Amino acid sequence: MSPRREQGLVRPYVVTNGRSEPSRNTFDLVTLVSGVPDRPLQGLTPEQRRLVALVSRGSLSLAEVAAHLRLPVSVTKVLLGDLVDSGHVLTRAAIPRAQLPASQLLQEVLDGLRARL
Amino acid sequence: MGSVPGSEIGGLETAGVSYLGDGVRTAVKLLVTGHFAVGKTTFVGTLSEIEPLRTEEPMTEASVLVDDLTGVPGKQTTTVAMDFGRLTLSRSLVLYLFGAPGQQRFTPLWRDMALGALGALVLADTRRLEHSFPVMDLLEEHGLPYAVAVNRFDGAPEFAEEELREALDLLPSTPLVSCDARDPASATRALISLVEYLIGTEARLEHV
Q1: What interface predicted TM-score (ipTM) does this complex get?
Q2: Which of A19, B119, B122, B208 is the most buried (most CB within 10 A)?
Q3: Distance separating the N- and C-terminal Cα atoms of chain A
Q4: Distance CA B17, CA B6 (A)
Q5: Which domains, from first to last, does chain B contain?
Q6: Would the CB atoms of A53 and B14 count as touching at under 8 Å?
């Protein structure tokens, strides 16, 4: 992306084919990631295969994917962008921001917390 | 999901991974922030239903402010880390708590944590109240609403609420509570104070 932003990063990782920014910029730390069953794995890099294997068993947030793969969030975003493009994983925006009923969502958070007491 | 035995695929062990429930559709995040050693990791660990996870982001030194945790002289790169945990709040809703180090304001990781967060809980220590100022400044710069929770440390001095408010230079509307980051009920009540405040803030914003 912009040169200014790239100055702040270490050299791009080999695993991302030299890119330090994902192919799209819509991933949040709590974007939910799940695998698409029965997609052929040919042509995927070892890191992409690890990501696909991880979310083939259930859904996780992007942050959890990064932590389990022991990869930086920035690198995980790049891997994820490619795997969404290739149809291997699905992502669900954490909150559909345009139609966010913030007060209702906050009330649900509050109810859930109170129920834990 | 859970019934499938874990397997080693490309060096990844999936046996210990705790997946989200099938019904989860919405994920929200709150930041748990504060200065070094104020109890962020403890707080997140107390409430998280999973073993807290950590991600690390390599940074050039130029992008990291002076930080007694990560400053390594003579190294070209250093690492910023974030700990986080998860609470499933209902069949469809999950809350992530990110333990956000306050020192690294210009890092992409901070941007990632702050973007889309509902708000933040600032943990404070009565022995080092002034160390909370940069964290609160940072949240205000990001426009993130926050509540302050004084984490009770054994042997730390206790102050009246008004004294604390004055020392922390809090707005009258900013919630100030006391909590024990090691106690699940106490930590939960601190988050409840924050969310109640956020609901009030949101109600005001919706009428602008």
Answers
A1: 0.85
A2: B122
A3: 46
A4: 9
A5: 23-206 (3.40.50.300)
A6: yes
